[in-house]
Recover the amino acids of this structure.
């Protein structure tokens, strides 16, 4: 092989994913050891600037420990494969592992359209500095502020704890927002919302009140509830057959297919899986930082294909949780909180059983 010069870099996992034009020789995954007190996961990549060959398999190593001094002592060789086979997965610790639970599920991104919410400060090009996000939101609804609105910080597991109201239909709102999204993203009859900056534990809630949200929340809308909605944002994730080129139609990920698939999943069943201990563990392995869970992280979550009866039974447990919050509010009092823990334990057991665990 021609010599192109070797380099070693320690980078955030966010950027490692994007470095696809290199020939990695060694990768050291440091998700479980805090090297720099920076709140991000790091990967050390020893690479050459060269196109990958068909037979090359990089050495992939897991490093872990409570202190950075343990870097040299806690070492595990990970499964590997050719870079061409792994594709972007070459920069992910879990790639190449045999995971029966993951194989038993459908990726969440095939069931839901997933996106972050609006960015409601002034557009940097059209109206820079003319208003701030806080200028648009107030506690009470009126004619100028008709849209229920939340930020990520208003989301707790299972419920939204606080709603304010967003200015809408004025000269600046939403026309001059930095990121507007599209109305159907927020006005679906039912959907899920997740706190983006959630630390160690995924935090997802159910919404059937058409609450608008900003970019600190992640929105999940089942594909069939967006049937007929066409725009550039959605086309980046999936296209209808009449929007696709011939080769694209052979991938099996047309909008029509995703809409049919998503109609087989109860939204509250999805919520139960996403708030489960298993999902927490899976996302811990694939997420790009220790602070945020991004749409691309969520898209990978495998959802077990429960029967309609199994889904209904788990959704009924979610209804019991929502009823607790409807009765007592947030935070729950001690007795109701114990009921919540029991219901969450039962959900965890049922979800684990569906994964065959």
């Amino acid at each position: 092989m021609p010599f192109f010069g070797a380099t070693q870099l320690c980078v955030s996992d966010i950027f490692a994913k994007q470095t696809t034009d290199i020939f990695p020789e060694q990768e050291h995954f440091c998700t479980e050891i805090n090297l720099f007190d920076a709140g991000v996961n790091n990967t050390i990549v020893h690479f050459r600037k060269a196109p990958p060959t068909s037979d090359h398999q990089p050495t992939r190593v897991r490093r872990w420990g409570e202190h950075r001094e343990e870097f040299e002592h806690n070492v595990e060789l990970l499964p590997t494969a050719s870079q061409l086979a792994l594709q972007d997965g070459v920069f992910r610790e879990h790639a190449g592992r045999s995971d029966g639970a993951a194989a038993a599920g459908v990726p969440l991104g095939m069931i839901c359209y997933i996106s972050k919410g609006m960015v409601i400060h002034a557009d940097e090009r059209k109206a820079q500095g003319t208003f701030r996000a806080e200028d648009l939101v107030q506690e009470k609804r009126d004619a100028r502020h008709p849209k229920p609105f939340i930020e990520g910080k208003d989301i707790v597991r299972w419920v939204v704890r606080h709603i304010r109201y967003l200015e809408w239909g004025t000269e600046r709102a939403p026309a001059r927002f930095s990121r507007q999204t599209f109305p159907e993203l927020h006005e679906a009859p039912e959907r899920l919302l997740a706190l983006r900056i959630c630390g160690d534990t995924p935090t997802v809630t159910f919404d059937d009140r058409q609450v608008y949200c900003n970019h600190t929340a992640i929105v999940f809308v089942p594909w069939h509830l967006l049937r007929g909605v066409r725009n550039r944002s959605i086309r980046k994730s999936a296209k209808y057959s009449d929007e696709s080129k011939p080769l694209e139609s052979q991938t099996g990920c047309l909008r029509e297919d995703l809409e049919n698939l998503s109609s087989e999943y109860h939204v509250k069943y999805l919520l139960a899986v996403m708030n489960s201990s298993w999902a927490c563990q899976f996302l811990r392995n694939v997420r790009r930082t220790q602070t945020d869970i991004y749409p691309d992280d969520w898209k990978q979550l495998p959802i077990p294909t429960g029967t309609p009866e199994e889904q209904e039974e788990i959704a009924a447990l979610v209804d019991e949780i929502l009823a607790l919050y409807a009765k007592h509010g947030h935070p729950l009092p001690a007795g109701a909180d114990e009921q919540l823990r029991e219901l969450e334990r039962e959900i965890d057991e049922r979800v684990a059983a569906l994964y065959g665990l």
